[in-house]
Specification:
Elements (H helix, E strand, L loop, with lengths): L1 H11 L7 H20 L13 H10 L2 H18 L15 H83 L4 H33 L7 H15 L6
């Protein structure tokens, strides 16, 4: 049993995950060792025979039904086998009701051990299950968020392509108007402002297309810190031109 415990600690340190069949194998070893100990210590008459219930409880808390049934059948088979086949305990050298008192004491110790072990392992299993449910919920929320981002990216890319044609027409007409009004400074300045705003709209549409393409392809964008800060400053100036940054 010590060698098997060392093997179990070594196995838990490996990178691969533990399968249900491997867990079932561990429980089989526990039941086998406990049954072997009970065989040489009174069998079914030993008050600690109820410890065979613990593997069933642990399996029921963390394993599918078929494994729970298999563990229960194995434990029941060992219990029934310990009734006719076991090494009887020697009688205690006590007077009067010593046998009964010793049995009651064994039952009390057995109850304390069972309660402590079940409380410890069931609490750990419940905490692990809650942690796993939290991870699943987080993954579900992230999947929903990704779906929303993809929908927005698709819509942005489609809108950008639709707006590109009328914007190109506006830019062409602004260029012709600028040439026609080159002798009118007031109108020429206004047209220059309109042309700069049209160029800004073109840049925004290009950014929308690029963002949509990256989101649909699932590729991240690499950007230098100086470029990122400059873009943030430009966006701030467009939103708050009266404020000095």
């Amino acid at each position: 049993l010590a060698a098997f415990a060392l093997f179990a600690f070594w196995r838990l340190g490996r990178a691969s995950s533990v399968s249900l069949a491997e867990v079932f194998g561990h429980i089989m070893v526990d039941i086998g060792v406990l049954s072997w100990l009970l065989f040489f210590s009174g069998g079914a008459t030993n008050p600690f025979v109820s410890l065979l219930v613990m593997p069933i409880a642990l399996a029921a808390a963390a394993m599918p039904l078929r494994y729970v049934v298999a563990v229960a059948m194995l434990a029941a088979t060992c219990y029934l086998g310990l009734i006719p086949w076991h090494v009887a305990l020697p009688p205690p050298h006590l007077a009067g009701s010593g046998d009964f008192n010793l049995h009651v004491a064994g039952m009390a110790i057995n109850f304390v051990v069972t309660a402590a072990v079940l409380a410890f392992f069931i609490a750990r299993l419940a905490r692990a299950l809650r942690t796993r449910e939290g991870e699943i919920q987080h993954e579900r929320e992230r999947a929903l968020r990704d779906e929303g981002i993809l929908a927005i990216a698709t819509q942005a890319a489609g809108t950008a392509h639709e707006l590109n044609t009328p914007l190109s027409t506006i830019r062409t007409l602004l260029g012709e108007l600028c040439r026609d009004q080159r002798d009118n400074p007031a109108i020429r300045d206004d047209l220059a402002i309109l042309a700069s705003q049209a160029e800004r709209c073109r840049d925004i549409l290009r950014e929308l297309v690029a963002v949509g393409s990256r989101q649909l392809a699932g590729t991240p964008q690499r950007l230098a810190l100086s470029r990122f800060v400059a873009d943030c400053a430009n966006h701030f100036h467009l939103l708050r031109p009266e404020i000095e940054l």
